[in-house]
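Tutorial, part two.
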Amino acid sequence: MNANYPFQKSPRCKATSKRTRKPCQAPAVTGWKVCRFHGAGGGAPKGNANGMYRHGQYAGEAITERKAVAEMIRHVRRTLGDL
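Running the prediction step on this input gives:
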């Protein structure tokens, strides 16, 4: 009844339980040091697959442009106010 399965010989998860302070003991995912429960293969996809695109509203160039437009508006209001 003692069959040797591949996961029995695989490296163990390096994560530690916060409650018991003991190692997880689950088999680690190939290429990772932790098991699937502790974050192996998790997280957001890299690059364009993530979908977290930036709009550029707070880019330096956009801020400078908005400040220039605001200054022109102030100048026009001062000029028209003197009429």
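The chain is about 30% helix and 0% strand. In part three we will examine how such features are distributed along the chain.
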